[in-house]
Every structure is written in C-alpha cells, then in structure tokens.
Amino acid sequence: MADSMAQLYQQVILDHARERHGAGEIEPFHGESFQVNPTCGDEVRLRVELAESPDGPRIARVGWVGQGCSISQASLSVLTDLVTGADVRTAEEVGEVFRQLMHGRGAELEPDQQDILGDGAAFTGVARYVARIKCALLGWMALRDALAHALTAEPSTQEENT
Predict the structure, then answer these.
(1) Whole-model pTM above 0.85?
(2) DSSP secondary-structure letter at 47?
(3) What distance in Å separates the CA atoms of residue 97 and residue 78, rounded to the nearest whole number?
(4) Fewer CB within 10 Å: C terminus or N terminus of the chain?
C-alpha cells in the first residue's frame, strides 16, 4: 500500500514537471520575484496579477519561468493550480500548509490539510530528503515575495504594469 502511494505521488510530480501549469511570463502583473536555490542552481522568476474582489485582492493569474529539477518545476505547476483564483489570504494559508508538509520530514498531514494541498500532497516523500526541500519550496518563496511586492507597490507602479 505504501509503495503504491509513493508511486502515485511520484507520478503526480512527474506529470506536473512535464506539463507545467502556469509556465510562461504574464503581462500585466502586479508583483514579481526572482529566486535561486544556491545549493543546486534551480531558479524561477514568478509574476502575479491581482484582481479586486469584495473579499479583498485575489490572484487572477500566476506566470513563471524557471529551470531546475523536476521537483522544483512540479512544485511551481502545483502552486499555480492551487492559488490561481484564490484570495491572497487563502493563497498564503495554502503556502503555509505546504511549508508544514516540507518541514514534516515525510510525515503525512491531517486529511483536511491534504485536501487543501490537492496534488501538493504528492510532495510528502520529498520532505524526507533535506536537499530537495529547498527545491520544492522555491516557487512558494517566490509567490510570497511577489505577493508582498504586489500588495505594497505604489499605485503608479501598479498602473505601469497594467
């Protein structure tokens, strides 16, 4: 049973690494971040476009360009699926659950947390390998930074990007 779950999780990661959701630059955008994993050289430039909603800003689109291992690329693809259309607060909560997964050393999350992560739960096994945790977190760090830039940018800067 555990082997079949590990194979399923591995297949999910490989599928996302091959068919990268959100790959490519987006215009306009409200926040951008460039992150590099100095350990392995993986890198990503991630952009977010925000839209206003009655509940506050939400993520209208995520676009990214990056290179690196299948784990970093798959993590970015999963991230795109999980946060596109979500309000910023929800996206930050999803990111926090993913960070908990990565710092859990391979321990599975509670079922409700796994539901929040969707395909992101496939990274449970990745958390057993310290060298790969930074690869999986690279995109999430970029998202957090891009959102911070988007939410604190001067209005004139945001208008230039739209």
Answers:
(1) yes
(2) E
(3) 13
(4) N
